[in-house]
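User: I'm new to structure prediction. If I give you an amino acid sequence, what do you actually give back? Let's try with this one:
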Amino acid sequence: MRQRYLLFLFITLSIYSCKTRTSQPFGRNLELENKRWVLREMNGKAITPTAEGKVMFILFDTKDNTYGGSGNCNSMNGMYTVQDEMINIHEMVSTKMACPNMEIEAEYFLMLSKANRYELKKKREGGIEKESLILYNDINQVAKFDAVNLQ
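Assistant: Good question. You get back a string of structure tokens that encode the predicted 3D arrangement of the chain. For your 151 residues, that looks like this:
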């Protein structure tokens, strides 16, 4: 009986020690937080700042699974959850100011609400580590963001 117990313990510890993921709080990914994710590409099209220098971005809050951001003209916020590679950006509310080119902002807000999967990528360029957030709707890439650290 003791040998079976030790064998069970050994197998359990072996499996547990092979786990490579770091522990994350439920519904959150700490690598998403404390960064301003600036939109660079949406639905295959490059996104550039407006003439006034405004950018579309999203910022995930570290305290309560909320997010905030901008669609160039209007600000937005809501709730989000993640688990593994799945993401749910929901309960979005936004201001309702009228501005030129509202179609792009509307497409941005709709894309965020339909994203259901994400991927974080890191790469080194010129000695600087750059991070990207890729959003997908099922298998289709719908957005690419670059990180700007807030710390």
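You can read the tokens as a compact description of the fold. Here is one thing that stands out. The first strand starts at residue 35 and ends at 42.
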